[in-house]
Amino acid sequence: MNSTLYAKDTPPYGASAGARGKAFRRAAPAAAIFLALCAVPAAAHLLGQPFWLGLVARIMILGLAAVGLNLVLGYGGMVSLGHAMYLGIGAYSVGILSAHGVDSGLAHLAVALAAGAAVALIVGLVCLKTSGMAFIMITLAFAQMFYFLAISLKQYGGDDGLTIASHSRVPGLSLDDPYQFYLLVLAVLAIICALCKRLTDSRFGLVLRGSRQNPRRMRALGFPLLRYRLAAYVLSAMIVVMAGVLLANLARFASPSYMSWTLSGDLVLMCVLGGMATLLGPIVGAAAFVLLEEFLSGMPLDLPAGAADLIRTHWLGVFGVFVVAVVLFARRGLYGALAGREDTDG
């Protein structure tokens, strides 16, 4: 009898091995991405190309901002064309505090997160009363308001932007060292991705996905969707604010262009390229976006009949063809195609 019960209650060895194999396949693409990011400092040092540190750090910062946007866009189905506003809030928090002699990185982060959360709460309460095209246009309108507000701040550079005298002071780190700054960005990205994974796999994440797929049914089940969506919107904004703080330290500059609607569109495009409703898709999309921009605008290849000059001049046209090809032939995005169908939520 004991052996019979044991046979019924214990999964077969093959099934357990299959589950382990599936878990390994799910984790492999994410592990490969982070291992590649960890190898960049060593490769840059060995090749004597510190330029790669700044380029990949920029990719990770934009990827972090796209991860934040993906929380509402991919998982919540809320298309925001105003998330660059929070990137600018993070950057200007660093720039304005530094202009007044406050160089503490913790103070920069605290003020940026507080300002971003307050703005996101107000903007979210207004925008989430609408849906569809109205939601898109209202988020765009708020972003443009803050864009012109930044231009009007003549004491902080106005349209020319604000130069930041020094990096934020972080205990135990020197952000003047590009290697230490790179590792800080990588650590922040890894932590945020891990937290987003826990969040999207939780009940909160399931309700958020349900609100995207069938909001009427979710309301009928008794879920207060406005609260869930507002919480997701504020959390999303705070992630983008953190990316803005890092971007200000990378460039040592804060510009109104960080809040422009074109940058919001770029973030949406990164999510689409990498794969919406995937955890690491926005990072892959940011890498594809930045690397292809650098390659096409510089075009190092020697092509016949002046094709290289043509591509350098009209690289946006070639980039557009690439985006259309991804949308048509890799509908789950680059990361979705790489990881497989069962991994598109990982």
- The tally of beta strands, per DSSP, is 2
Q: What series of H and E elements makes up the topology?
A: HHHHHHEHHHHEHHHHH
Largest sheet: 2 strands, antiparallel
**Residue runs with pLDDT of under 50 for 5 or more positions:** 1-10
State Rg: 22 Å
Shape: globular
Query: Which structural class should the secondary elements be placed in?
Result: mainly alpha
Quaternary structure state of the chains depicted? single chain
Cα(first) to Cα(last) distance is 41 Å
Average pLDDT: 89
The total count of helices amounts to 15
Fraction of residues in β-strands:
under 5%
| DSSP helix fraction | over 70%
- How do the strands line up in the largest sheet? 1-2
